[in-house]
Amino acid sequence: MRPSTLAIVLAGGAGGRLxxxxxxRAKPAVPFGGTxxxxxxxxxxxxxxxxxxxxLSEQHNPASLSDHLANGRPWDLDRTSGGLLVVHPAKGTExxxxxxxxxxxxxxxxPLIRELAPDVLLLASADAIYRMDYDGLVGAHLxxxxxxxxxxxxxxxxxxASRFGVAQTSGGRITGYAYKxxxxxxxxxxxxxxxxxxxxxxxxxEALAAEVGEDGLEDIGHGVLPSLVGSGEAQDLRHGGYWRxxxxxxxxxxxxxxxxxxxxAFRLDDPELPLLTKVQxxxxxxxxxxxxxxxxxxxxxxxxxxxxxRSVLSxxxxxxxxxxxxxxxLLPGVVVRRGAVVExxxxxxxxxxxxxxxxxxxxDIALVGRGEExxxxxxxxxRLPAPED
Length: 389
Prior knowledge:
GO molecular function, one term: glucose-1-phosphate adenylyltransferase activity
EC number: 2.7.7.27
Oligomer: single chain
Number of helices: 7
Structural class: alpha/beta
Keywords: Glycogen biosynthesis, Nucleotidyltransferase, Transferase
CATH architecture of the largest domain: Alpha-Beta Complex
Strand order of the largest sheet: 5-4-1-6-11-8-12
Number of strands: 30
CATH class of the largest domain: Alpha Beta
Low-confidence stretches: none
Number of domains: 2
CATH superfamily of the largest domain: Spore Coat Polysaccharide Biosynthesis Protein SpsA, Chain A
Strand content: 25-35%
Domain Nucleotidyl transferase: 7-259
Domain Glucose-1-phosphate adenylyltransferase/Bifunctional protein GlmU-like C-terminal hexapeptide: 288-360
Distance between the termini: 59 Å
């Protein structure tokens, strides 16, 4: 008999490291690749693995994500029994209130998890790009007979291990774990995808809550994972494919660059395991007679009359004749006027670059917020609106 699996996708974080990109939307709702959103990754993996019980934990800016979810239809999760269930902080129970972190959120959901009684609880964050065999993960976890299976990977190029949970292993077991350590021991990090045997996990949460109080649980990396590692009940499952956390502006930009080239590090349209998403009803991309496009991704509905190099354009983006967009990410509805130059920048929805204005350049990534009009040059690493002192 197929084991029963509950997948919980953590989609409630504020996403502050993405700066202006999460000012008006939930982090999992941030567009990616011109046609997708970050939440599509975990939901697609659930769909391909045949996992039919999927809970998505929301908290910050939930309305920005709700329309995209479409009741789970894009991932075949719009079911009469099971399917996609969106869970929010709520009042009216003994565990009411805002989630103070991932461990706290799980503790508040614990009675519902115990009631469902799955064989395996799969936990995944919604701020990384990857393809992963969730079905294989569940099988490996059950075969290991452990309380927790950590999916690990080597820290990606351009990142610091101190941003992540760092693990040490021996003989397939996790022997040490530190959450975002200042001085990491090694470069093996957790991908924020885990499989748990529910009872040991929930019992650990209850014990920690009794010790520190519900407001002290924070994220699972602070107490839960070290506790399970300390008991010898955690095993390692190495992820050998592409994995990139895109939870900061530089890593978000870098993830888009890795979609490009003759042999991209990651393809959104892999025929075997495509990333599924809500279909946008729009016309095809339009390339004007004066357009020059080199090694870029253009979403349906984009309109290009200028030059675009190594960039990713979302639907509704307009690049006028004489404008240049180079190594940049333009989110839906961005307009780059005649003679403007955008280089190594991320522009949020509806931003407008005035004629002859330059945004970004060699160096750090420039960032322009939603609906902002750039009327004077913004240097490399600049931000509009500028951060408050």
